[in-house]
Every structure is written in structure tokens, then in C-alpha cells.
User: Fold Fe2OG dioxygenase domain-containing protein from Drosophila willistoni.
Amino acid sequence: MVPSMVFPALLAIIKSDCQVEASETPTRHLAVLNVGLSNGLSEEVLLEAAFATGGKVSRVEMCPGKSYCFLTCCTPQEAQLIFEGMHNIAHIGQDGAVAYMSYVKEVPIFEAGNQWNRSLPNGLVLLKDFVSEAEEADLLAAVASKEQTTDQEENSLKHRKVRHFGYEFLYGTNNVDPNRPLEHQPIPRACNILWSRLGDGKLSDNWDWSQPDQLTVNVYEPGHGIPPHVDTHSAFLDPILSLSLQSDVVMDFRRGQETISLLLPRRSLLIMSGEARYDWTHGIKPKHLDVVPTAEGNLTTQARSQRTSLTFRCLRQPSVCSCSFPQLCDTRQSSKPQSQDLSEQATSLEQQNVHEVYDKISQHFSETRHSPWPQVVQFLDSFEPHSTILDVGCGNGKYLNCNTQLVAFGCDRSQGLLEVGRARGFQIFRCDCLSLPVRSASMDGCLSIAVIHHLATPDRRLAALREMARVLRPGGRALVYVWAKDQRRNDKKSAYLRQNKAVNRQRTTEEEQRQKQQKEMDTHTLLPIHTNRTEFQQQDVLVPWKTKDDQSKTFLRYYHVFEEQELEQLVNQINTEVELIKSYYDQGNHCVIFKKL
Assistant:
């Protein structure tokens, strides 16, 4: 039977979300209260279970991002057959959980599925069935051939295996070195079938190249992805080609607030040219299931399997781009006055929207920071007794007494937070994380929890990591946590997102209105103001904070939220004496552990 408190709660959720009311008598409409797209239900599985009862379904409404869905039948009698055959009986939930159902008076119509009917960006072309199954097998064998690759080219990144042909793609700079071709790893001859096929279709008449000279092969396992990015303008000519083999996947294209999802079928070729190549980012979310459209216009889920992509590029020489899309163009950005002006702007931003803010909110902020993260505690427990540990950006010092067998020190820039820590008896001092007043090679371990995402440029974030590496002894280890831009992992929300519940939606709307007014007043900054407890839309944002004593004033904290693999790339740039030994995702944070060699 359904637990007595569960059923009303599930009904309350759909009423709050969709203004859908339950019916005590049979209707044509049914709600599946506890299973939907967000916990892995597909339209096919739902219909198979419904048809097994003898009932007929005229429409399915799968709700994006929700753990419920709806069915409409031809008659109330058909709905009754399905209800009696599935409610508390059909094992279609996660881990075989039974489905809870209810008659409802009406079924909402969700517009999210319409995103699949949007026009593609100009210059984006998808050619389905571009290669046959036999040609797919030949291509996979060619790029996997040991004669074609060496250990140097067969790298394993955090979330995928990568091989390069022609030239090595350098992930630290998203570029190539044109002076260092891979002379013994040319693009396999098996790929030559592609170019004549494109020429026959006259697709390449306006391209900047006729054949590529660089190929990157990525092997993705289910659950793997790649952060949103644009292939560096100055490095490569137009267009970029990507051939999908072995499995379908959904790729997301973004420009500003606009997002378009595109299903890349197995054996399809994606062509990104012009606007689509230069002005839109593209990426793949790390998931095991993709939400995809059905032939009837509804939504369903589709499990991923291993996928291999072949990305073809042609080097631009000289490395100067003259495109008309300056927003993402590295040539245009590098031509702007930078260095000293950029450093001064970053310092000013951090002073106003980090240091001054934390001094003003320190007492209230400290009251909300009392529970240590379990994996941080586990890291501290991995050190030998009497090891020396430095917590860089220690705040109120909550990690300094997690392991009393360690000799732990803390430092922070905020005078207000330091006063809280000192009142608790911790050994802490004030300094800037960019210049630690600590002797080199003197610490066994370092912590940096939610600190460097407050630094406003990549160079400053890298400098903070280098300071931690400097003070570590050989063999010493550092743990770094930063906020992730993607606050979901495997379709599960982080703790940050879960705090935005239905009961707080009106409060959220009011907060958005206040933030809009605040943004209009803050004409000195072009940074967007983030809506708390929602997905991040940009990497560089101002995050609001209100103290419990004065709800009328909003403090804006600067954050740079990290894309996947961005933190690992920074660690790889520290120096040759540092080794990345672990990276992971923990409740909305990207995390790394690195060791001083």
C-alpha cells in the first residue's frame, strides 16, 4: 500500500507545479505521481506497462525535469483499466519501485518539448546516415590502430579517452602548436571517403579548406560529457566537422541565454560553420540518459552507450581570425587593452564584491557554515598525526578542529571571519591567498575550500594554486573545492538547487524582482546577477546575500563558477613539480587533489 503521508504529498507537488487537481472518481486523465523523466522513465516503458492492462492511451505528457508524468485515455473506462492494473503494482520506478497513480481532472501541456522544433543556428548542418555500418567499423578500426597512435597521443582525460592525429590538440590552451606536427600519426586514410562525399553535395564550396590536417578522437562512456566551448577562432579555419559513431547523443548549443538541443544520431556528420562555429558554444552534459523527442512530438528518455566522435579541423596560418563574431573571438579579445587595466579591474571587483561584502556579512555567514564536508574531513584524516596543515581561506575555521591530531593553521582575508575564528581559539592569521606569508616547502597539506572562485581572472586563480604548491613539502597534498557551473550530476540536483522548493517559489519571484532593481542601480558593472537556488547561466556572476537582521539590503558576491575540467586544466599549468592525483564532483563543486613531487 501507499504510505499514508506519501500520497497527499505527491498530489500536493503536482497541484503546486501544474495547478492540476486530483479527482475522486475516474476520469480520462491519469497522473503517475512518482516516476518521470528526472528519474529515468521513458515513454516506451510507460506505454508498455499501460497497454499490458488492456487500456488504450491517446496522449502521454512527459514533464521535463520532473519525477511525474501524465496519461490521457480515450474514455474513463480505459483509464480505469490502466489505474487498476498499474497503481501500486507496475514496477516502472527507479530500482523497480512501484508507480503511484491518481485520476486528475485535466492534464497540463508542457511547452519544453518545443525546443526541438526551434530553428538551428545559421551554419549548423546535420547529415544523418553519413556513413554506413561497414564504413563505421572501418573508421573505428583505423583510429584505434596501434600503428596510428602511441602512448603520447592516447591520453585519458577526466571523462573520456582522447587520441590526436596530424597535430596534438592542447587542452590547456584549446590550441595546437603548428610547429610540432605528429609526423608518424597522420589522419588515417580510411577517412578519405568523407571528403569526396561532401564535395559531391557542394556543401564545401564556401569553406576555407578542402581537407583537414588535424583529427581529435574522443571516446565517451555513458555519463561522460564535455563542457560548453567554442573551438578557438585563431587556431582553426571554418568549418569544424564532427562524426558521431557507435551511439546517439544530445549536444547543446548556447548563445547568451538561448539554448538549442540537437540529437546527433549514430553515423551522422555535424557541420559547424559561420555563426554556428564562431558565435555559439557547444557541449554535451555528463548524463547516462538523454531526454529526446518522440515521433509524436512528446518527450522520452534514451540511454547512452559508448560513443566515439571524430572531430576534423584545419589549422589557420597565420593564427589570426578576421571573423565578424567578436564575443567569443580570441583574436578580437587579445587586441583589447589588457594586462595592467585588467588586473586593476579584477582587484577592484574583488575588493568591492568579495572582501568588503564578507566583512559585512561575516557573522551571519559564519552561522550558516557549521557542517564540514565529509570528503574534506576524509582528506584531513588521511594525514599522519602531527602533520602541518594550512587552510587557505579558512573562514570561521570549521575545518581546523576536524582532526585534533594535526597541527592546523588557517588564514583568511576577511577580518570579520577571522574574529569569529579567533574567538573559537584557532591559530589563524590575515593574508591574501595570492601572497601567503608562509615559508616554502613547510606544509604537509593545504586546503582551499570555496575560495579561488572569488578571484576574477584565470591568472589570479592560477597564482593562488601556485602559492599553495609553493608552501607544500615534497609529497605534500592540496585539496581545492570550487563552485561548479553545472549544479546537476547524473540528473540529480545539488544541495544548492534542492533548497529552492515549491513552497519558496513566490519568494524566489520576489527576489528576482528585487535583483532586477538592484541590477539597474549597479550601472558600474556588466556582470549578471544570479537568481539564488537556480541553475547558473553564466560563469562570472554576482550572487546575492541577505543578512537575517536586514532583509531590505542585498549584498552581491562575485563568483566565477567553473566548467567541467577547468580546474584540472589550471592545476596542470601550475608547474612540472605538481601532479594531479584525483578529481571529482561533490554536491555542486568541482574538486581536485594535487601532490607536490
